[in-house]
Amino acid sequence: MTIQEVWTKAREVMGPKCRVCPECDGRACRGEIPGVGGMGSGSSFTVCREYLKRVKVLMDLVYEPSEIDTSMELLGRRFDVPFFMAPIGGMDSNYNGYLTDEAFADMTIRGMVDSGSLSFTPDAFYDSLYELQLPIIKDVGGVAIPTVKPWALPRLMEKIRQAEDVNALAVACDIDSCGNLLLKKAGKPVYPISQEGMGRIVNSTRLPFIPKGIMTPAAARRCADAGCYGIVVSSHGGRVMEDSPAPCSMLPEIREAVGTRLKIFVDGGIRSGMDVFKCLALGADAVLIGRPYVIAAHGGGREGVVLYSQKIRNELRDAMVMTGCKSLSDITRDKIRVQ
Ligand SMILES: Cc1cc2nc3c(=O)[nH]c(=O)nc-3n(C[C@H](O)[C@H](O)[C@H](O)COP(=O)(O)O)c2cc1C
Asked: Is residue 40 included in any domain, yes or no?
């Protein structure tokens, strides 16, 4: 199977909610929730691609050739690549039900481990989604990061215990789900979490804690002060609030605010190895990629997920060759210009 065949098959089976556009940029699906779009005008999604296109990469081929290393350390392990799968829930509500939640979880969690990476896995307004993933996570030795909704603290802690029971490497929480339309519609209350609340969570689990949906230097500093392991700079794919900037555009300020106290992940519109390179140069340690992995799973199952990862890794390696970067730590701010 080739990556082109994966995309061709996905186009046959995915409609009508995801149209598998030549570029997944949020224009065709504007305002479609349930569906795969950004909220309202869709601008918080489309701005991600617009910003990444303004980031230009500087060639430098005056160096002694050597091996290129795309691997990174995370959670005390080595991963082959600095990109991971973002949590995407609702195969029925947001897509067309061609894949069940369980089939999707199986192919993506295992496919990401095969890729030398891992998945952040979703939670939803219905409990079965979170729970059906747990045995799969256990089976891959816990190499995944369950991402819990910001429920009231007792419920949140219950779900963190479930993640501990399957030896997950860490646990994340998409606090930006406070703007999630599907949770609102289902009448399921979720809440912001204070620095003190985060501190309580951090102190009551052995799992490293990673809030997702951090967009300001001040919020990032509060997460660092609370003892979080990392943050995901994210606007939830533009699905929870209108008029967010591109998350990657906030990276320089956020990195400056927290230094190396937190691992910084970012997502939103990252579609190529060159985009991964740009986000690392802007200040991220690693990135998450969401919607394209769903397309890869629809078109090629577990193998499609691996093929897509290989494509991104090859593109990242090419970008590193062309810019004189031997390892990820060489991908610094002076390798790019924002125009
Ligand atoms: C259909 C859909 C469902 C999503 N479900 C979740 C979820 O359950 N939990 C979560 O933290 N993020 C969820 N997200 C947000 C993604 O994790 C990610 O932040 C976002 O899609 C940006 O990445 P992308 O542009 O590469 O898709 C969802 C996004 C989409 C499109």
From this structure: no
